[in-house]
Amino acid sequence: MKRLINIFSLVMIFAFALTSCNDDDVKLDIIDVKPSELVEGIAFSVTPDAKNPNIIYLESKMGSSYTPLWEHPQGRSQKNKVTLQIPFDGEYEVTFGVMTRGGVVYGEPYKFQIESFCADFVNDDLWTFLSGGVGKSKTWVYNNGNYGLEATGEVGYGDPSTTVEWNNFAFNWDPGKGHSGDDNIWNSTMTFTLDGGAFVNTINTYTDGEAPAEKVESGTFMLDVENHTLSFTDCTLMHTVGWDFKTTTTGWSKNLKILTLTENFLQVAVLRDPNTSGEGEWWLIWSYVSKDWADSYVPGDQPDPVPNIDGDANDIITTTRTKSWVLSLNSPYDWATLEGDMMNGFSSPNDYNNGWSAYNADMIAATKLVFTAGSGNSGSYVFSTYDNEDVEGTYTIDANNDITFDKPLNAMISHTNWGWDSYTYLSTTDENKLRIIKTKTDVMGNVTEMWLGKRDPEKSEYTAFHFEVGAGGTPSVDPVKVLKERLTGGSSLTYKASLVYPFCWAYKVGDPSSFSIGPNDAFPDWTGWSESAYQYAEKIRFTFNNDGSVTFVDNNGATQAGTFAIVDGDSGYGADIVKFNGVDVLDSEPITYTGPGGWVNFCFNYNPDALLANAPTDAGWLELYSWEYDADGNVSGIWLGIIQAGGVVDGKDLTAERRVFHFVVE
After folding, report:
1. Lowest mean pLDDT across 252-266, 290-304, 366-380, 532-546
2. Contact 524, 537 (CB under 8 A)
3. What is d(CA 610, CA 615) in angstroms, rounded to the nearest whole number?
4. What are the beta bridge partners of residue 157?
5. Contact between residue 603 and residue 580 where contact means Cβ atoms under 8 Å apart
6. Whole-angstrom Cα distance, residue 445 to residue 468?
7. Phi/psi at 275 (5° precision)
8. What are residue 640's DSSP bridge partners?
9. How far is CA 29 from CA 13, 102, 240, in A?
10. Are 506 and 516 in contact (CB under 8 A)?
11. Phi-psi region of 57 (alpha: psi -120 to 50; beta: other; left: phi over 0)
């Protein structure tokens, strides 16, 4: 029986970037090719190789005036000539189209027959890794982070502004086992076979309401070993059923990126579709292991690395007799790698104002550990917290810098309501342990800060609690000082306009996730800007100095010097503000874009009539929206915003639309 491999047509949408609004720039002519004219033998040819009929040559006969658009069993192409290597016999389809001056035109699908099997085309290692080889089958299951391979769970994320390609990518977030949110996925399987054809069968186990359920799909697959893509027909890539909406059906089945494929490890990238998901475009990276590997894997004894710290652990926590340690009000907790590197780089209270972290200064300030040295590497402790009575007991400390307490410690150290309750607890492991994973010394070499890590039982990471030497209490935190030091890097930082993601719009101050055009969406395409506008944007510079001075280079390259001040959001306006004095650019437009879609300009807000609630009236000002950091936790960029519509009501309503501009550290 012959197998019909259905290749469905995709509707292609082309966006034309115009450099001006002149009606004469671009005109669409009438379509000068009819679908009925795009037939095999006239508009294109499908020819088998004379020596190997499993090699098929596709060729456009439309001439250089038309760009060909092929949809074929191994994907899509716009080349005039395409060579297919089809290993299995069966009936196949090719759909041919052209891009004309008036639009895209497709002909009817053309069917052709393959009469033989060509084993040479499936003898590549990648075919064998995926399916087990000719005449065999291979089953894959979700990676759960416990099989000794890369990735800590079934799905992670890849930044589309970075390289995400075959053997060349890095997670920008690897959230660990269970992130897709369904505890019933772990019996799912995906089986590839090369027995009589290239077939695939998936069994997706999932939760339907409250009951376990199965979704079974069967179809065929095609592996492109040169371009490292995987396509399915009548089937989709195994994924959590509750994530179906993250992209279209085609997005789960056609031209999927293979990032890793070895004998026992498979990673496939699916591009999240903003139109179906309601979230920004991002790579969803699914990780699988072969079932044989999963069934036979026995973890080896691989002890965690012991991070380097300053000096002897027992001396650190007690000096010679007694030492008091209090949670840092600036950065009380974070998550850390097994090497002791902080994963979020929290450095101020504002960093916890991110929509998910908990921060409560009173609870943090009341959390204290007092160690008193005893004999050898042992002693006593007192653990004080906001809600609980003091916990007293004894401890020991070993060569790996693990502090073992005689009883468990567990206390809430912060609570924030984000519309849902976020809690953070300081607690020990099941063995009542915390490890010293990082220290910091003063100029005299005395350890004044330490991070105590609680080992996660599943992920390769610590929850890290940051302690400083002190007597406790509630030391005051000056948010203005914190913001100023961050803006200046403690001394001086120069910012330039981003030429990649120059601007977007936002609605809720301080919440980058609400950007209607997010910082990873390149809008507009700078190649569509006029040359003069591009040059203007390149000239802009802000230099903020810790002494309060600021230098501004405007759109004409002229330098102005003045001062700046930070207005804390708690002052009554509701958003942090950078206020400028002596920099007279209130009516200038340093960044200007005119063309298709309208115009965008950049300027300082100014309100001499004091009608904006609690906003400064004696200088130009910008709302300080969001911060960006490099891998070392240093500021690498900022987003500065202004009121979009400019009215009084908009100024008082922080949920109203803002125009937000992106600057990066030079």
Report:
1. 532-546
2. no
3. 7
4. 173, 284
5. no
6. 15
7. -70, -30
8. 624, 661
9. 17, 5, 46
10. yes
11. beta
CA distance 330 to 478: 10
| Bridge partners (DSSP) listed for residue 207 | 212
Q: Is-contact 316 308, C-beta < 8 A?
A: no
d(CA 336, CA 318): 24
b (16+ CB within 10 A) / e for 43-69: bbebebeeeeebbbebebebeeebebb
Burial environment of residue 382 by CB neighbours within 10 A (0 to 12, 13 to 18, 19 or more): middle
In three-state form (DSSP H/G/I as H, E/B as E, the rest C), the secondary structure along 54-104 is CEEEEEECCCCCCEEEEEECCEEECCCEEEEECCCCEEEEEEEEEEECCEE
∠180-185-191 over CA atoms, to 5°?
Answer: 115
Lowest mean pLDDT among 373-387, 489-503, 517-531, 626-640: 517-531
Q: Which residues contact 197 (CB under 8 A, 6 or more apart)?
A: 3, 88, 90, 220
Contact present, 267 and 259 (Cβ < 8 Å): yes
- The Cα 61–Cα 202 span in angstroms is 41
DSSP for 257-290, please give it.
EEEEE-SSEEEEEEEPPHHHHSS---EEEEEEEE
CA distances from 231 to 5, 106, 219, 377, 614 (A): 12, 22, 11, 61, 58
pTM attached to this predicted model = 0.46
- Tell me how far apart the alpha carbons of residues 621 and 608 are, in angstroms, rounded to a whole number: 12
State yes or no: pLDDT of 609 exceeds 90: no
* Residue that is written with structure tokens 């309601």 in the block: 278
Q: 394 and 406 in contact (C-beta within 8 Å)?
A: yes
Amino acid identity of 112? F
Give the least confident one: 195-199, 292-296, 496-500.
496-500
SS3 649: helix
**Residue reference for tokens 């977030």:** 173
Task: Report the DSSP pairing between strands 598-601 and 620-629.
Answer: unpaired
Q: How far is CA 251 from CA 153, 214, 277, 468, 567, in A?
A: 21, 21, 12, 50, 46
**Spatial CA neighbour of 260 closest among 288, 219, 299:** 288
Supply the DSSP symbol for 359.
-
* pLDDT, tens digit, 9 for 90 and up, residues 151-199: 889 999 999 999 999 999 999 889 889 999 999 999 999 999 998 889 9
Domain ranges across the chain: 35-118, 123-296, 313-469, 480-665
At residue 303, φ and ψ (nearest 5 deg) are -65, 150
Based on its alpha-carbon atoms, the radius of gyration of the chain, rounded to whole angstroms, reads 31
The token duo for 109 is 């699908």
Using CA atoms, how far apart are residues 393 and 454, in angstroms rounded to an integer? 19
As a whole number of angstroms, the distance between CA 576 and CA 654 comes to: 11
Strand partners, 72: 75
CATH 2.40.240 fits 123-296, yes or no: no
Task: Identify whether the C-beta of residue 68 lies closer than 8 Å to the C-beta of residue 76.
Answer: no
Query: What class is the 35-118 domain?
Result: mainly beta
